[in-house]
Structure formats: C-alpha cells, structure tokens
Amino acid sequence: MYNNFVEADDSLFSEIQDILKGKSLENQVRVGCFKRDVSVQTDVSELPSLQTLGENNSTLRMDMEVVKKEVAVKMKCLEAQYITVIQREAIDLYTLMQRKSRNAEDMHKEKIALLQKSYQNQLVEAIHIIKDSFKKSPTQNKISIPGGQTDNRIVEELLTKLEEQSFEMLILTEKVAEYEEQLNTMSYAEDTGETDTDWLKDENGRLEEENEKLNDDIDSLYIDLEQLREDLEAKEKNIEALANDLKQLTIKANEERRTVQKAMHGAISPAPHI
Questions:
Q1: Which among 115, 130, 210, 265 is least surrounded, fewest beta carbons within 10 Å?
Q2: How far apart are CA 50 and CA 250, in angstroms?
Q3: How far is CA 231 from the centre of its chain?
Q4: Of residues 249, 230, 229, 231, the one with CA closest to residue 241
Q5: Is there a contact between 232 and 30 (Cβ–Cβ < 8 Å)?
C-alpha cells in the first residue's frame, strides 16, 4: 500500500514538473494591444485543479494514519512477544531449579533415613548382647553384689545408664551423620556447581542475546518510524508549497487575463471624434 502511494505521489509530482517546465508557460504567443508578443501566461486547463490536489492531500493523510496504526500494532506485537519469551524462560528456569533442589532434598532424606535405621539396628543388637552377658555371668564382669534383689536392681540401674548412654550415642551419631551429610552435600554441590553454573551462564547469555536482539529490533523500528514521519512531513510541506504556488499562479493568470481583456477591449473600441 505504501509503495502504491509513493508511486502515485511521484507520478503526481512528475506531472506537475512537466506542466511547470512546459513551453506553454514561457513561449506561448498571445495577442497584445498592437502586435503579437510572447507573454508568460498559462491556461487554466493546463494546471491541475485544486480539487485534485486536495483529494491527493487527503489521501496522503489517510495513508499516513494507516501507516502509523500499522507501526503501532507491530510495536505492540513485538513487545508482547518479548514479554512472553522472558516469562516462558523464567518459568522454565524456575522449574528446573525447583526440580534439582527437590531431587537433592529427597536424596538427602533417603540417606538420613538409611543411616538412622542402620544405627538403630546396631544399637538394639548391642543392648541385647549386653543384657545377655549380664544375665549369664555377672561375676565375670567384676560386680560384687550381696543379695539377689540388690543384684537385679543394680543390673537394672546399669542397664538404664547404658540405655541413656546409648541414647546419647545415638544422638551423637545422628549429629555426626548430619555433619557428614552436610559435607557430602557441599562436596556434591561443589562437584555439580560448575555444571550448573556453566548452564546458568549459558542460559543467561542466551537470554541476554535475545534481549539485545529484541531491543535492536525495537530501536530499528523506532528509527524507521521516525524516518517515515519525517518523509511524510516533508511531503506534506512540499504539497502545501505546491498548493500555494498553484494558488499564486492562478491569481496571477486571472489578473493577466483581465489585463489582456481590458487591453483588447480598449483596442477594439472606436476612437472619439475630434
């Protein structure tokens, strides 16, 4: 549409230039008062009508508005695509990070559960072994206790203390397991950190490149829009100048026509009697 408009506009200007440079403007023989002379006059039929110029001007303005609307729509589409791409990439990155974090957390919980179960089994087996050893031969463990009930009471106290110590040992082993798990997690993070960091760097670089590309497209679109606006304003000024020139030429032609008509009327009128 814009190309058709430019071609029609160029054809109109070329037609006006042909008319302005024609021989009829500077070498048209007209009849003067006493002889035939060369006068700079133009026939009204040889000039484009003001209505035609007005229609072309209105068409130009309508086309300019259409172009502005199309450019605005295209800019909105680019902005929407830009926002959509950024949101999609952000969601994908967030999902990937959540999945990696969840996998690491699940693996950590599984290791803790296995260690706790293993230590509990070992503790239960150790307690059973100690109980059996006390029940079988208390004298072999160098315990001198007078009386059977006292013997049982002391054994129970010893077992209670043993259970308390075993519980403390269990707590300590759990803490050690937690520390070991933290160390393993830190080492795992250090081992996989380079890969994740490289992936994040690559992803960030790709997003920055796409961002720069979209910014360049938007900047070029703004430049094209500004150039188009300047061209349209220049053409409007040219059309206004041509319309003013045409108006001046029409006024001048009418004045010269009146002058010629008056001169011809004076030449034809009879001379007064002396």
A1: 265
A2: 10
A3: 28
A4: 249
A5: no
Q: Phi/psi zone of residue 109: left (φ > 0), alpha (ψ -120 to 50 degrees), beta?
A: alpha
Tens digits of per-residue pLDDT, 37-70?
445 555 556 566 667 777 888 888 898 889 889 9
Least confident span in 32-36, 184-188, 262-266: 32-36
Report the alpha-carbon distance of residue 174 to residue 178 in Å, rounded: 6
Cα–Cα separations (whole angstroms), residue 248 to 241, 244, 255: 10, 6, 11
Match 């910014």 to its residue by tokens.
215
Instruction: Please list the residues that pair with 236 across neighbouring strands.
Output: none
Give the E-state strand segments of 104-201 in sequence order: none
Contact 250, 47 (CB under 8 A): yes
Q: Which residue has the tokens 């814009």?
A: 2
Tokens (6 digits) for 45:
């039929």
For residue 250, which of 103, 2, 68, 47 has the smallest C-alpha distance?
47
Distances (CA, A) of 8 to 2, 12, 225, 241: 10, 6, 21, 18
Q: What is the pLDDT of residues 68-106, one digit of tens each?
A: 899 889 888 888 888 888 888 888 888 888 888 888 888
Amino acid at 98: Q
d(CA 231, CA 233): 5
What distances in angstroms separate CA 263 from CA 31, 33, 36, 39, one per listed residue?
A: 10, 6, 13, 14
DSSP 32: -
What residue has token string 């220049």?
Answer: 234
Q: Give this prediction's pTM.
A: 0.29
